[in-house]
Specification:
Helix content is 25%, strand content 27%. It is an alpha/beta fold. The strands form 5 sheets. The protein has a 9-stranded mixed sheet. A 5-stranded antiparallel sheet has the order 17-18-23-20-21, with helices on one face. The chain has a 4-stranded antiparallel sheet with strand order 2-3-4-5, with no helix packed on it. Helix 6 runs parallel beside helix 7 and helix 9 runs parallel beside helix 10.
C-alpha cells in the first residue's frame, strides 16, 4: 500500500461492517451493471450468487489496461493506486495526460472486458482538501461502470492525518452520490474513532519484517480487531507479498512461498471472506523477478477458486470440531458445511511439524476424509476422530464424507 504504511508491522485484512437486522444491498444502475449485496456473515453476493474476491492491488506490469498478470495468476478483482495519488509510479513510469475521469472510465471498462471486478480508489487530494464537490462528481461519473465493486476511500487515514470526522463526511458524500456500492477504508492498527466511516474496513499489519517472521501473529491481530467491534466483523485479508525492509531485489526478508500460503489460509481460518495480495510497484521491485513467489500466488489462487463454494459457505460452530496438538493446545482451524459434507481448513503456523488429533461431533457418520490441497493425504475416521500431521507452515482443506472416495481434484460440488 503506501510507502509509509508498508514499513509498519502488518497483515492486511479487509473487514466488512454489516447491518445487524437486514442484508445490506448495493444495486448498480444500468443493464450491464451488477447487483451487489452483503450476507450477514460478510459474504459478497453478486447478481444473486456468492462471490469470493481474489484480488490484487496492481498488475505486476503497472499498465492500466494490461491485465495479463492479473489473469495469469487467476485473480478476479484488481485495483490501481494511480487514481489515489496520480503518480507515474503506478503506470510504469508513463505520464498520462488525459482527464482523470476519462482515464478512470477507460480503466474500469478495460477491467470489465477482462471479466474483472475493481475496488476503486478516490483521489487523496480531494479528501485532504475537503473538496467534497469534486468527490461527488467523481463518484457520480463512475458509479454505473459494471466493473465497480466497492469504493476504496483511503489507506490508513491516521497516517495521512485525515481525521475521523473528515472520513465520515467523505463516506456520507460517497453514499449520497452512489448508494449502490459500499465504501472501504484500510487501517494498519485499531479502528478507534473511525468506526462509522466505512462499509468495509481493512486491516494491514504484515508479520514478515526483518528477521521477525511470525506468521501466527495474523491470528492474534485479527482476534484483537474482532474484539473492537460489537457483533459480526467479516473481513477480507490482504496478504503480504513483498519485503518490508527495503523495496529492492533479492532482500532476504521477502516472505517465502510457504509463508504466503500459510498467511493466506490463516486469514481464511480467522474468518476472511476475501483474499487480496499486496506487492511493490514494478518501478521499485518487480514481483515477476521472483518467479517462485509469483508461481505460488497463482497456485494459491487456483486453490481458492476451486474452494470458493466452501469459502462462501456459512460457518458452523467450532465446538463441534476440535483439533488438539500433542502439546495440548489447538491449532488454527475453521469448520464449514457445504451441502452434505463437512469441511475443515487448518494451518500450522509453527516452524516445526505438529502432530494432532482431530475430533468430530459425537455420533457423526463421517468415515473418510481427503485433502483438497494434498491428494496424498487420506484420513480414516474411527470413533469420531483421526490423527492429522502438518509440516511447518503447512495447510490443509479436509473434506469429510460418509463413504471412501478418491480425491479427484477439489470436488467441491458435493
Amino acid at each position: 500500500m503506501t510507502l509509509a504504511k508498508s514499513f509498519l508491522f502488518s497483515i492486511a485484512l479487509i473487514c466488512v461492517t454489516v447491518s445487524v437486522s437486514i442484508t445490506s444491498v448495493w444495486a448498480d444502475e444500468g443493464n450491464d451493471t451488477s447487483i451487489v449485496s452483503l450476507r450477514k456473515d460478510g459474504v459478497i453476493i453478486v447478481n444473486s450468487k456468492p462471490f469470493y474476491p481474489i484480488g490484487t492491488y496492481r498488475d505486476p506490469r503497472d499498465d492500466l489496461t494490461d491485465f495479463r498478470g492479473v489473469q495469469e495468476a487467476g485473480f478476479n478483482m484488481t485495483h490501481s493506486y494511480y487514481f489515489e495519488d496520480l503518480s507515474t509510479i503506478h503506470t510504469g513510469g508513463v505520464a498520462l495526460e488525459e482527464d482523470l475521469i476519462v482515464t478512470a472510465r477507460r480503466y474500469l471498462q478495460a477491467a470489465h472486458n477482462h471479466n474483472l471486478k475493481v475496488f476503486m480508489g478516490l483521489p487523496r487530494k480531494m479528501i485532504k482538501r475537503g473538496d467534497y464537490g469534486a468527490i461527488r462528481e467523481y463518484v457520480r461519473a463512475l458509479k454505473s461502470e459494471p466493473a465497480l465493486l466497492v469504493w476504496y476511500l483511503l489507506d490508513e487515514p491516521s497516517i495521512h492525518k485525515v481525521s475521523p470526522e473528515v472520513m465520515k463526511k467523505v463516506r456520507s458524500i460517497v453514499a449520497e452520490a452512489d448508494p449502490n456500492h459500499p465504501a472501504m477504508v484500510v487501517f494498519c492498527s485499531k479502528i478507534g474513532d473511525y468506526q462509522g466511516s466505512f462499509d468495509i474496513a481493512g486491516f494491514d499489519p504484515y508479520p514478515i519484517k526483518g528477521r521477525k517472521q511470525r506468521v501466527d501473529l495474523i491470528s492474534r491481530f485479527l482476534r484483537d480487531r474482532k474484539k473492537e467491534v460489537k457483533g459480526n466483523l467479516p473481513f477480507w485479508h490482504v496478504v503480504q507479498g513483498h519485503d518490508l525492509s527495503k523495496p529492492k531485489k533479492g532482500d532476504i526478508h521477502r516472505p517465502t512461498p510457504a509463508q504466503i500460503r500459510c498467511m493466506t489460509f490463516l486469514g481464511i481460518i480467522s474468518g476472511a471472506r476475501g483474499t487480496v495480495y499486496y506487492w511493490w510497484p514494478s518501478v521499485w521491485c518487480n514481483i515477476l523477478d521472483f518467479p517462485e513467489v509469483w508461481q505460488e500466488i497463482g497456485s494459491i489462487n487456483s486453490d481458492l477458486k476451486s474452494l470458493s463454494p466452501v469459502l462462501t459457505a456459512e460457518d458452523i460452530s467450532t465446538e463441534d470440531v476440535e483439533i488438539i496438538s500433542e502439546r495440548g493446545d489447538n491449532i488454527p482451524y475453521i469448520a464449514r458445511q457445504h451441502e452434505e459434507n463437512l469441511w475443515v481448513i487448518a494451518a500450522n503456523p509453527d516452524r516445526k511439524k505438529v502432530e494432532t488429533i482431530l475430533h468430530l461431533p459425537i455420533g457423526s457418520t463421517y468415515i473418510f476424509a481427503t485433502d483438497a490441497l494434498n491428494a496424498e493425504r487420506k484420513l480414516i475416521i474411527q470413533n469420531n476422530s483421526c490423527t492429522l500431521s502438518l509440516d511447518a507452515l503447512e495447510v490443509c482443506a479436509l473434506k469429510f464424507t460418509e463413504q471412501e472416495k478418491p480425491n479427484n481434484e477439489m470436488n467441491t460440488d458435493n
